[in-house]
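Q: Hi! New to this. If I give you a protein sequence and the SMILES for zinc ion, can you show me the bound structure?
A: Yes, paste them in.
Q: Okay, here:
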Amino acid sequence: MTRALSGRTTTPADIGGHPAWCARAHHCTAERGGQHASVPEVWQTEHGRYVATRYRDRRGRGHVELRVVVRLADDDATAQAQCRHLLAVAYHVVGRVFGDS
Ligand SMILES: [Zn+2]
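A: Thanks. Here is the predicted structure of the protein with zinc ion bound:
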């Protein structure tokens, strides 16, 4: 790996202006002022569908977008509680994975 002046790392695989994981074609909008994008990884599980897409913007900053599609309870109060609980747990997990400690 090499370190750019920005302090961000790049890999030798960044040939032709695209990182090795970039899907190019219609996924990548970097050449039109947008960002590089991976092919979304989809996990269809017993309790829902997870879709993760990796991005890199023009400044070289990486991002991941994670969508989770799950069925909610039929009654509205439980469904609302499930939404809030999922958000709280996701916040906790993201903090564990991306936090400083
Ligand atoms: Zn690209």
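A: Residues 71-101 form one domain. Let me know if you'd like me to explain how to read the tokens.
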